[in-house]
Amino acid sequence: MDAKISLSSKKEISKIDERIYGSFIEHLGRAVYGGIYEPGHPTADDMGFRQDVLKLIKDLNVPIVRYPGGNFVSGYNWEDGTGPKEKRPRKLELAWGTIETNQVGIDEFQEWAKRAGTEVMMAVNLGTRGPDEARNVVEYCNASTDTYYANLRRKNGFEKPFGIKLWCLGNEMDGPWQICAKTAVEYARLATETAKVMKWTDPSIELVACGSSTPTISTFGEWEETVLRHTYDYVDYLSLHSYYGNPDNDTPKFLSSSVIMDNFIKKVVQICDKVKEEKKSEKQMNLSFDEWNVWFHSNEADKKLERWQVAPPQLEDVYNFEDALVVGTLLNTLLKHSDRVKVACLAQLVNVIAPIMTKTGGGCWVQTIFYPFYYASKYGRGTAINVDLDCGTYDAGDFKAVPYIDSIAVKNDDGSLVVFAVNRNMKESLTVDFNFEGFDGLKLIEHVALENDDMKAVNTEESPDTVKPINKTLGDKIVLAPHSWNMLRFGK
Fold first, then answer.
1. Separation between Cα atoms, residue 342 and residue 345, nearest integer Å
2. Which residues are catalytic?
3. What gap in Å lies between CA 391 and CA 297, rounded to an integer?
4. 112-141 pLDDT, tens per residue?
5. In whole angstroms, what separates CA 159 from the centre of its chain?
6. What is the pLDDT of residues 53-104, one digit of tens each?
7. Which of 141, 356, 357, 421 could form a disulfide with 407 if both were Cys (CB 3.0 to 4.6 A apart)?
8. The dihedral of CA 451, 338, 19, 127: what is its sign?
9. What is the DSSP secondary structure assignment for residue 451, as one 8-state letter?
């Protein structure tokens, strides 16, 4: 079967904000304890951070990591994770039904971020707490003044401010599962007043207001409008959260998940622009898609966990080959909307619905979804270019005429062009003819692919390379194998 991809230098979408390749570490399961932090591990450094895990995170080149939650943050007292470790309290963690030891807090995490070559995207508790605690943690992290919380940071061993520039105003405050959930008006007023005092404490920071926790919640749309009408002048981004799964084992339908994400982003953009027009504002509200991934494999196992454990194995999805294809299409979709999506966080980074897995006391390995993220992060840091497709289509559930190819292109600063393409056709390869306009003299210099006959193939500690990228032989024709993810690099 043949297909055609046309690219024009006149169809630029936007310069890609590198924070679109962000991720997320929550105090949940083994993300922190046994994930990034494990004193006594053979690879642990002087602060207890696992160096084998740190190396893989550096390979992903994640520019920003959201912390400390997530649902966790709505019951969290940030002070508990500061100062001498022997004085830190062990507490019941109500969001996930565990015990939090507080051996890692912002003191340690900001240092881990430096060692990982990333920045911190800090969330404040707007569940059980409010503006006072939020302004205090900004002072603790960022102030150089001779004042109480800045001096407390110094007392704890950190003379220089942490310099955290991006902050989330709570997490999923519309969700009934959230500790101290709010109505739209309650949250909107709280977020507005919190934003004011946080920016008065440090005018250089950027703020993210909570959008709906999921596009399927009954208040979606109404929530966004209400929140934006109150917060529009005080915040910089509106958050989106969405997860995707295949509980019905319908692979063709699952491979169309990016259509859902695409529609979600478009609806939120429309709402933002509606409120902008109402307010007669010159300011464009951009988006932070700060939770996205495939998540469903671990649901049944999590229901059986005993409560009040320390760092139990929660949300440990084992990702298969088809999950990697879906993640590839979701990344493509974020890039297609890079004119408005400036921040995005793959949720999460280690062990908890994550591309990287560890064995406590043992080794670490990468899951199937690691690879599309790795290549997008490495090669997708230029300007997004719209792709015109001429290919076959299929029907998937409620979606009709889903294109077999999902694709986006990125023009890099060195003049090279990168095309990310997923072939959703389950049975047939696609021979692709490329038509370039304004990209003279480019030729294919690399074709990396993820291919596997088994859609359910997984990587494990014992078999870490079951699913891994291959370098395709370059020839006269460009062929995308059935159900495959592909990166095509064109240069001179």
1. 10
2. 172, 291
3. 32
4. 999 999 999 999 999 999 999 999 999 999
5. 31
6. 999 999 999 999 999 999 999 999 999 999 999 999 999 999 999 999 999 9
7. 421
8. negative
9. -
